[in-house]
Design brief:
- By secondary structure, this protein is an alpha/beta fold.
- The protein has helices at 37-61, 120-124, 127-136, 153-161, 163-178, 192-206, 267-278, 301-304, 330-338, 370-377, 387-399, 402-408, 414-434, 458-466, 482-503, and strands at residues 68-76, 81-89, 100-106, 146-151, 183-189, 218-222, 226-231, 245-250, 253-263, 285-288, 296-300, 321-326, 365-369, 445-447, 450-451, 454-455.
- Strands 8-9-7-6-13-14 form a six-stranded mixed beta sheet. It has a five-stranded mixed beta sheet with strand order 3-2-1-4-5, sandwiched between helices.
- β8 (245-250) and β9 form a beta hairpin.
- It is elongated and about 115 Å long.
- The two termini are 31 Å apart.
- The protein binds inosine 5'-triphosphate.
């Protein structure tokens, strides 16, 4: 083979010249439109703006390190005193922060009204619980923490019986409370109406029914010396029996509440009335159907009749004491319990008992304090079971011998244990015959102790009212919660970014127009 001619001498094959001559090779590196300064600047600014938007949204809405405020309420009841400590976020005390019970303390011993003859002991009794509260509240918050004491039916009765003794108890209590570093806001007797209404506020506040304007729950409170019923009924506008009406405007809603407190109808005072009924002739021994067979305890007339609820019935010439013996008969017990209610006269459209007006029962009810203690012990908190089954359970329980009851419940305080048959019978009779709950609406009752960690009772409602923590009008609330706000801003930022990219479309490099080099 001849050697290949040098390249330069190879004949050039004629070719079809392109109509447009390609640019010189040095110019062939086509300019990328993304690299134009304007595009780069816009993109960078866009990205910075989006990052800044999201950062600000996240930082601005990050919950601040929470600070809290505190409030203390002492419930000076007839049977005992309890301290409740509440906490709420400091920044939100203007109506939006949730108030929660963070601690409670049961004062050792009896209620303050039982110290009438040695008032200083009433003040002294509060010391341990107050010291506990001092430890629970951060010391820098002590001075601003309001401290209230509210006394209920025990002191109402003492005040009726001996107002100077009641004043002395208050002086002693006041002196003791003022020694603590809190902001003492006073000690006073709550009216029965206040006790009922604040119990209702507590239940509905904790259930979030007030803020949301939902149908409210009624409140049934059974104490040692009084009992309260409070509910909203369409059939009650306050015109009939105005003394039972309490009106509220809460979170922008008007409420016309029916409430009544029956003094002497707490379970301890009713027991006195039931025993008074059985000791009218001044016997030395009684066979009580409300106590278990085999129960036998000596009781003193002077102690039994030492209460304004029964004092006028003390049989003249009665012996010093009587043997209180149990017979364990639910039906007969219910008959004696019925005698404490007067159903004979009613000057209104309808009454509960003792001539007290009561509108139609409406909605659901929360039953707390002794309602809960007793029904919980008896395993009867399930109100979906028929009323007949509740009666049968009580019939069987009351008939159980005292020995067996003591054996079956070794850890339970003997005073409570002895009285569950009586208390269960009283609760059933009060609900069905006193307040007219029927087998149709019995299941509307819920026996409760706590709601979301806070005890059901008047104390929280009382504090919310005194600290103006429930506004009359609904507070302005942010459109979205924190998480929702951040999500919306993030989504918007992503959408903006995509739109920015799309808006720069004309500058995108286009494959079809790429010059072909042949
Ligand atoms: O409202 P007032 O009438 O003044 O009474 P209180 O404030 O003392 O009433 P409580 O709700 O503290 O208690 C109601 C009743 O329940 C009783 N009680 C408390 N704990 C109990 C339990 O575990 N079992 C049975 N009864 C209990 C207590 O002795 C009272 O007779």
């Amino acid at each position: 083979h001849p050697p290949w001619p040098p390249l330069s001498r190879l004949p050039v094959r004629p070719s079809v010249r392109p109509s447009v001559l390609p640019p010189p090779l040095s110019d062939m590196k086509e300019k990328n439109p993304w690299h134009t300064p304007v595009t780069i600047i816009i993109t960078v600014i866009g990205v910075i703006a989006i990052v800044a938007l999201v950062t600000v949204a996240v930082l601005q809405n990050k919950p601040l390190l929470q600070k809290y405020k505190y409030g203390i309420v002492l419930d000076a009841g007839s049977s005992h005193t309890a301290l409740y400590l509440y906490e709420w976020p400091a920044e939100k005390d203007n109506n939006t922060g949730r108030v929660e019970q963070i601690h409670s303390c049961k004062v050792k011993g009896k209620g303050i009204s039982s110290y009438a003859s040695e008032p200083w002991k009433a003040g002294e009794s509060l010391t341990l619980c107050m010291q506990e509260a001092e430890r629970w509240v951060p010391s820098k918050r002590h001075r601003e923490t309001p401290l209230y004491l509210g006394a209920t039916a025990g002191m109402r009765l003492l005040n009726m019986e001996n107002s100077s003794a009641s004043d002395k108890v208050f002086q002693a209590v006041e002196g003791a409370l003022q020694r603590f570093p809190f902001s003492y806001e006073g000690a006073r007797i709550l009216s029965g109406q206040e006790e009922g209404a604040f119990g209702w506020v507590t239940v509905n506040y904790l259930d979030d029914r007030l803020k949301q304007g939902l149908e409210t729950t009624g409140a049934l409170d059974l104490g040692g010396a009084s009992t309260q019923i409070s509910f909203v009924s369409d059939s009650y506008d306050g015109s009939e029996s105005p003394s039972n009406s309490v009106t509220f405007r809460l979170y922008g809603n008007d409420y016309n509440l029916y409430t009544h407190s029956f003094l002497c109808y707490g379970k301890d005072q009713v027991l006195r009335m039931v025993l008074a009924q059985q000791t009218q002739s001044g016997p030395t021994s009684i066979l009580d159907p409300c106590f278990h067979p085999g129960y036998n305890v000596t009781k003193f007339y002077s102690e039994l009749y030492d209460s304004p609820c029964v004092s006028d019935r003390k049989p003249p010439g009665a012996p010093e004491a009587f043997a209180h013996r149990g017979d364990g008969n639910f039906q007969q017990c219910q008959e004696v319990v019925r005698t404490v209610f007067n159903f004979s006269s009613c000057r209104y459209r309808q009454c509960s008992f003792n001539g007290v007006f009561q509108p139609h029962l409406q909605g659901s009810f929360g039953a707390f304090s002794a309602y809960y203690f007793v029904m919980n012990f008896l395993n009867l908190t399930d109100t979906s079971i028929p009323l007949q089954a509740v009666k049968e359970k009580l019939l069987q329980y009351c008939a159980t011998s005292w020995d067996q009851i003591v054996q079956q419940h070794p850890g339970v305080k003997e005073k409570y244990l002895a009285e569950y048959c009586f208390s269960g019978t009283y609760i059933l009779t009060l609900l069905t015959e006193g307040y007219n709950f029927t087998s149709e609406n019995y299941s509307n009752i819920k026996f409760i102790k706590k709601i979301k960690g806070s005890d059901a009772g008047w104390t929280l409602g009382y504090m919310l009212n005194l600290t103006n923590m429930i506004p009359a009008e609904a507070p302005d609330s942010p459109l979205l919660p924190h998480a929702g706000y951040v999500s919306v801003v993030t989504i918007m930022a992503v959408v903006l970014f995509v739109l920015l990219i799309l808006s720069l479309r004309p500058l995108w490099p286009r494959c079809s127009k790429q010059p072909q080099i042949v």
